Amino acid sequence: MRQRVEVALGVMDLLMGEPLALDLVNTRSGSGFDALDGADDFQAWLTGQSHRLTVPEEPLKPSDLSALRALRAHVEATLAAIREAAPPPPEALKALNKALRGAPPYPYLEARGAVLTTGTRRAGPPVTVLLTELAEAAMALLTDPNVGKIRSCEAPDCRMLFLPAHPRRRWCSPDLCGNRVRVARYYQRHKPT
């Protein structure tokens, strides 16, 4: 589903709620907006993903955003190859594997009163942890049997990708892109000649 995200330049519609790796790819809109161009814009996107990602406490530096854009490009390239039933680019796989090794997980124990619980954390700087989590999400998506069902929105000027829950779904958002297409068709049918 598309959500409105507050960004430094105003409000933008981003497709969110898809598998995390698709949400990452969809951080760039057809109108030229890129949530990875500025730390504030990316922070707004991260806030919407906070239930799935470790959000760094410190503001992201330009080099961090550059690393995130590079990871997104590798995910996009691999996804495009898979959607075309072609081998993925070796450099993209190499970069994804490097990101997967960046912040290794480790188990930990925690006492809650007299009860011990376990969990998993990641070792590494916050941005490295974030890159590893995004690479893991990409790995899960790229190896999912449903990866071949991923579609591009059919609305003009929309570049969003989505994994349809229903085989007849054609737009990333029925409320935004779907409505725009339906209204355009209506005006095309009813315009004076």
Automatic annotation (TrEMBL):
<dbReference type="InterPro" id="IPR023286">
    <property type="entry name" value="ABATE_dom_sf"/>
</dbReference>
<dbReference type="Pfam" id="PF11706">
    <property type="entry name" value="zf-CGNR"/>
</dbReference>
<dbReference type="InterPro" id="IPR010852">
    <property type="entry name" value="ABATE"/>
</dbReference>
<feature type="domain" description="Zinc finger CGNR">
    <location>
        <begin position="150"/>
        <end position="190"/>
    </location>
</feature>
<dbReference type="Pfam" id="PF07336">
    <property type="entry name" value="ABATE"/>
</dbReference>
<protein>
    <submittedName>
        <fullName>Conserved protein containing a Zn-ribbon-like motif, possibly RNA-binding</fullName>
    </submittedName>
</protein>
<dbReference type="InterPro" id="IPR021005">
    <property type="entry name" value="Znf_CGNR"/>
</dbReference>
